[in-house]
Amino acid sequence: MFCYQCEETVKGTGCTVKGVCGKEDEIAAYQDLLIYICKGISKRNLAAMEKGEGDPKVGLFIADSLFSTLTNVNFDKARFSDLITSAINMRDNLPVTGNSEPDACTWKPKSETDILEKARTVGILSTSNEDVRSLRSTLLFGLKGIAAYYTHASILGKTDESITTFLQRGLASTLQDLTVPEMVALLMECGSTGVTTLSLLDEANTSAYGNPRITNVKTTVGTLPGILITGHDLKDMEQLLEQSKDAGVEVYTHGEMLPAHAYPAFKKYTHLYGNYGGSWPHQKKEFERFNGPVLVTTNCIVPPADSYRDRLFTTGLTGYPGVKHIFASAGGKKDFSSIIDLAKTSQPPQDLGQGGADLITGCAHDAVLAIADKVVNAVSYNIAWYEQKALLVLLSLLSLGIKNITLGPKLPAFVSPAVLDVLVKNFDLKPNTTVDADLARMLKGL
Ligand code: SF4
User: Is 90 exceeded by the pLDDT of residue 308?
Assistant: First the structure.
């Protein structure tokens, strides 16, 4: 395997034996192959769309497939195997584009061994030129960021064909030999499509659940059994709260779901108790002590400890072998009764001893714009990137002409020295140094 899509990558260069995230060699192979087939789908569907014959299901399928390969989303081989089968069927139902189609448009596995062998020839390292590999990888990971945000918006009923068309154009572009300026232009388009996607997601969230308000969130624990929910899927949050409101249990958020407390639509649920624990790196210790069931809605799932594996549930695009998965019905409804029933038989959460101080969330655009005159002049961007969504945010800022961004804690392994040089010269991008030095520099406006 070779994967260098996130900040945790081994030695800042690449995971080659097993991911620091827990991704096994075999899953990496399935992910690489799924992306490869998606490139073939994209090539064929774009040609079909020009003739008005595109398959309308392709856009969301591509988004879901890319999102599945994001860091800490899905570790389940069976789910990737199903996705690869669906991808090949989808591609083969699209019109052939000519006599000399790329291999991604035609290759099919005859066995699982074929998948593993083929994956070795189509992953990141199949592009030999370091700078071309860097530009293609940056684009691919930016596309994954778009896919993640787009999938969330589409779950709430907001879609935009221009976004899914760009996903396909981006993927198909990596099958061609483009010039460096052409690849850089695609990166900027990826950033501007990121802005469109983030705007779509904001519209999806706020039209469904209202504009976030600055909100204090308890960090203590109650006396009733609890359900812990993490990830970013607000629709899952809504369905869980609605189904559990009279069950005599309390719902807690973990890490990634903390912002849900700020949405007005969730404030009527008095059993939404507070936030338990910190962010995803603390899952093992904190999920163990929670005692009740834990629902992981999107990234980030870390390989679970045995102590809580049997009360862990995944849903949506997340997955882990041996962990119970809750599928949606055709209409998007999910039945969380097994989680609620398990919670009723659980002990209340153990107090993590966080001192009881409230957390504050809800600093979304409405809240910030209300004090814009005070904050605008004080902004400096210091991006702590971890995975592909943060990369997309960086590309989005660059596409808006924002310069002088500080990036860290480590620079992405997929940015080659020559590409970094371009970013530094054109955008004044700076790597992190130390907290004290960066802070002192930024407070001077440098
Ligand atoms: S996602 Fe990150 S930690 Fe996981 S294999 Fe890739 S680079 Fe390594």
Answer: yes
